[in-house]
Amino acid sequence: MLNRVRSGDDRAWSDFARKAAAILSQWARWKRLEAADADDLTHEALLVVISKIHSFKHSGRGSFRAWLRAIAWRCLCEAQNDKENLARPELAERCLRTEDQITDLEEEFDRLQQIELLRSCMLSVQRRVRKQSWDAFQLLAIKGLTGSAAAQQLHLQIDAVHAAKARVQKLLSAEIRRRQNHRLPEH
């Protein structure tokens, strides 16, 4: 459904918006917001979702709901901060701290996605190259051995070790670019 929404399918968007609104409303009720505030929060969060749906990356079960709740929390914090006579100043401070934490979580989420992409690409490349080439890459690029130490361990010439590492790096870079370019149309 998400891919259909991203492609501009109006019917998919309608279904998606209904499901997302239900998740957001449930979250608002859990936060004990009054009905009118819950509706406002749901609408505000859906507007943010519309603008950010193309950048959402699914990372496993529950990630979409967590993403929606993070957006809703941010909208709630912004609404609380916008009120001039905030009855609970400790909530405003908590909202500001939480916004920083959400930003940190989003950055960590992106970092973990990059690590997972690299891990997956490395496995793919490892399957396509000779074991000796992969071992040369690992010893030089990952373990940080010198060319002579890696060559000695693998019983190869130093030039052969460096050439093998370069081939694996080239394949790895190409695989990463291929997967990233493949994702672009989804955004």
Fold and architecture overview:
- The protein is mostly helical.
- Helix 6 packs antiparallel against helix 7, helix 6 crosses helix 8 and helix 7 (about 145-155) crosses helix 8 (about 160-185).
- It has 2 domains: about 1-100, Rna Polymerase Sigma Factor, Chain: A (Orthogonal Bundle); about 130-185, Arc Repressor Mutant, subunit A (Orthogonal Bundle), CATH 1.10.10.
- It contains 8 helices and no strands.
- The mean pLDDT is about 80.
- Helix content is about 80%, strand content about 0%.
SSE blueprint:
Layout: H1 2-6, H2 10-30, H3 35-52, H4 63-82, H5 89-128, H6 131-142, H7 147-154, H8 158-183
Derived from helix and strand composition plus strand pairing, the structural class reads: mainly alpha
Main sheet, how many strands, which sense, barrel? none
Using only CA atoms, what is the Rg?
24 Å
| SSE series | HHHHHHHH
Task: Bin the strand percentage.
Answer: under 5%
Extract low-pLDDT stretches: none
Structural key phrases:
8 helices; Arc Repressor Mutant, subunit A; Rna Polymerase Sigma Factor, Chain: A; elongated; 2 domains; 80% helix; mainly alpha; 187 residues
